[in-house]
Design goal:
By secondary structure, the protein is of the alpha/beta class. Helix content is 52%, strand content 12%.
Length: 318
């Protein structure tokens, strides 16, 4: 089941507002860079490189973008400053298209996977539990029955926060006492969900990253237990990253993708930062697709990531 897969006016406004700080930060720098210039030359390209890097696009991705623009400038012989923004937009859009799978649908559940199991990973403080709550809301709004599993059994605050979100959204939360085996919580959650013909199960996990081997072993154990209850589960391992941390998000993505089989990313807190360029860099550098972006505190402010709409909001619709 799912809701119509279209980009509403309200969602566009939320996206525009959420990316406004990044847009203002990038384009105010571009405006200063272009002042008094009429032609794109090596100096302009050096300045553009600096603008992209300081916007947390990342060094490797920035160099790829600059290289592509250099080829365009060389081929077209004369590129003026008014054309540069359009070329930059086109190359970023092309880069996002080349390095990802197709955009996903709107909070849909595959018909052949019931319950659809999502295991959520990420360090503490990135908005992991909040993202789970918003996901639960969106799936429930789309007509699905949802179960949440509080498998971060090492922090009382994590369990309490998930329970609060469950009450807000109106979905059951399966939990055990503090210090319980996380795999046991996952087992109970999937068993209950399966017995009650639930559509979606979302499992929270501990946000520790100081010991990659320990993390990998723990997540592997949870996955094995889930697979016994629901063959093929988890269907999605969602890594949540805090977009406002910029390059720190890159490092976390490297660590977690090395530790477990992450197959989807959610980038949160984009509304409070000018570091939205991190979405471009992470989309480019990791083969794992960005699936969701967080653009505010409200339950409606978690959106499916659409590359075209993202670039349109970042650059304007002209």
């Amino acid at each position: 089941m799912g809701i119509f897969n279209f980009f509403s006016k309200e969602k566009k406004e939320t996206l525009d507002k959420g990316l406004s700080k990044t847009k203002e930060g990038v384009f105010s720098k571009l405006a200063r860079m272009m002042a008094g210039k009429s032609k794109v030359d090596d100096e302009i390209l050096d300045d553009l490189e600096e603008v992209l890097i300081t916007s947390d696009v990342g060094v490797e991705t920035t160099l790829r973008i600059i290289e592509r623009i250099e080829k365009r400038v060389s081929r077209d012989k004369y590129v003026n400053m008014s054309e540069l923004k359009g070329i930059l937009r086109e190359e970023i859009a092309a880069l996002l298209t080349e390095n990802n799978t197709e955009d996903v649908g709107e909070f849909t559940v595959p018909a052949d996977k019931k319950p659809y199991v999502i295991m959520v990973v990420g360090v503490n403080g990135v908005g992991k539990t909040t993202t789970i709550g918003k996901l639960a809301y969106q799936f429930r709004k789309a007509g699905n029955t949802v179960y949440l599993g509080a498998a971060d059994t090492f922090r009382a605050a994590a369990v309490e926060q998930l329970v609060i979100w469950g009450e807000r959204v109106g979905v059951p939360v399966v939990k055990q006492k503090m210090g319980s085996d996380p795999a046991s919580v996952a087992f109970d959650t999937l068993s209950s969900a399966k017995a009650n013909a639930a559509d979606v199960v979302i499992i929270d996990t501990a946000g520790r990253l100081h010991n990659k081997i320990g993390l990998m072993n723990e997540l592997s154990k949870i996955k094995k237990v889930m697979d016994k209850v629901v063959p093929g589960a988890p269907h999605e391992v969602l890594l949540v990253l805090d977009g406002s941390t910029g390059q720190n998000a890159f490092e976390q993505a490297k660590q977690f993708t090395a530790a477990t089989e992450v197959n989807a990313l959610a980038i949160t807190k984009l509304d409070g930062t000018a570091k939205g360029g991190v979405v471009i860099g992470i989309s480019d550098q990791f083969k794992t697709p960005v699936k969701y972006i967080g653009l505010g505190e409200g339950m409606e402010d978690l959106q499916v990531f659409r590359r075209k709409e993202f670039v349109d909001s970042l650059f304007g619709d002209e």
